[in-house]
Amino acid sequence: QVQLVESGGGLVQAGESLRLSCAASESIFGINRVGWYRQAPGKSRELVAAITGNDRASYATYADSVKGRFTISRGNAKNPVYLQMNSLKPEDTAVYYCNAFTFVNYWGQGTQVTVSS
């Protein structure tokens, strides 16, 4: 069973930046979609950003709340996705999960991001 592991979370002040990474225990080939989700205390898990498609044609989608501040990028089969988060706000505080979809849906265990005001 392939495992995803997120890293790069932490405690920062409002306005600062973090870069999240996602590493796979084994290479994942044929990824159709990669994404980042987050879940804040007492709230449902929500999509932050995703890239759908392959190297020839793909498009990115973002939650309205992060547009212009976050950038998702694809990596390779071992590190399928990254998330650059700039101008962080306290409302960005959540556990962030990476996701990779082939014909199987892979999830990580999450990394905590805490933004203080």
Rg, nearest Å:
14 Å
Q: Give the uncertain stretches in residue-range form.
A: none
Percentage of residues in DSSP E strands:
over 45%
Quick one: biggest sheet? 7 strands, mixed
Spatial gap, N to C terminus: 40 Å
User: Fraction of residues in helices?
Assistant: under 10%
Question: Helix and strand succession?
Answer: EEEEEEEEEEE
Q: Which whole number gives the mean pLDDT?
A: 95
Given the helix and strand composition, which structural class is it? Answer: mainly beta
* Helical run tally: 0
Estimate the global geometry from the Cα principal axes: globular
**Total strand segments:** 11
Structure description:
The chain is built from no helices and 11 strands. It is mainly beta. Strands 2, 4, 5, 6, 9, 10 and 11 form a 7-stranded mixed beta sheet that branches. A 4-stranded antiparallel beta sheet has the order 1-3-8-7, with no helix packed on it. The protein is globular.
